[in-house]
Design brief:
Order of helices and strands: HHHHEEHH
Radius of gyration: 20 Å
Strand content: 5-15%
Structural class: mainly alpha
Helix content: 55-70%
Strand order of the largest sheet: 1-2
C-alpha cells in the first residue's frame, strides 16, 4: 500500500473521508445528532454552548435539538433562578442511542484500524487532538466570559443617514 507524504491537506482530506465512513454507519442517529448527544453527555447543557463548541449557529443546533427532544432522546429543563435558560439532559433512551451510535462507529472503524501499522499510536494522537480541542474551547469560553460588555449605544452616537 502506497502511503502519501503526510501534510495538513492530506490529513484534512482523510478526516473528511472518515466522516463519510461514519455517516454510512447504521448508528440510529446522524453525526450532527451524535455530536449533540455526546456534548450533552459530557456536561454541555445549553444550546448556546453547544453551538459554540460545534462552531455553528444556535438556530442550527436548536433544529437538531428539537428533533432529539421529539424523539425522546433529550429533555429540556428550566434552570432555577433564570427564566430564560434551558438545560439539556439525556434521557435513558438518549443514553442508549448514544451507546448504540458509538458502537456502530467503532465497528465501522475497526476494520480500517486493522489495516494500518500502528492503530494504538493513531488512537493516542486522536485522544490528544480531542484534548486540544477541549482546551481550545475552554480558553475561548474564558475569554468571552472575561471580556467587558460593550458600552450601550445611544442614538446620538449613530452618524446621520444610517
Amino acid at each position: 500500500m502506497r502511503v502519501p507524504e503526510p501534510s495538513v491537506a492530506q490529513g484534512a482530506r482523510t478526516l473528511v473521508r472518515l466522516a463519510r465512513l461514519l455517516e454510512r454507519a447504521d448508528a440510529g442517529v446522524s453525526l450532527a445528532q451524535f455530536r449533540i448527544l455526546e456534548l450533552v453527555a459530557r456536561g454541555t447543557e445549553r444550546s448556546s454552548q453547544i453551538a459554540s463548541r460545534l462552531a455553528t449557529s444556535k438556530p442550527a443546533v436548536t433544529l437538531v435539538v428539537d428533533g432529539l427532544v421529539n424523539a425522546g432522546l433529550l429533555n429540556r429543563e428550566s434552570v432555577a433562578g433564570d427564566r430564560r435558560a434551558i438545560r439539556l439532559t439525556l434521557t435513558p433512551r438518549g443514553r442508549q442511542a448514544l451507546a448504540r451510535a458509538e458502537e456502530a462507529y467503532c465497528e465501522r472503524l475497526k476494520p480500517l484500524l486493522a489495516e494500518i501499522s500502528d492503530p494504538h499510536a493513531l488512537l493516542t494522537q486522536l485522544a490528544e487532538i480531542d484534548a486540544a480541542l477541549d482546551a481550545r474551547w475552554a480558553r475561548r469560553a474564558e475569554r468571552r466570559a472575561t471580556r467587558p460588555a460593550p458600552p450601550p449605544t445611544t442614538l446620538e452616537e449613530v452618524p446621520r443617514g444610517q
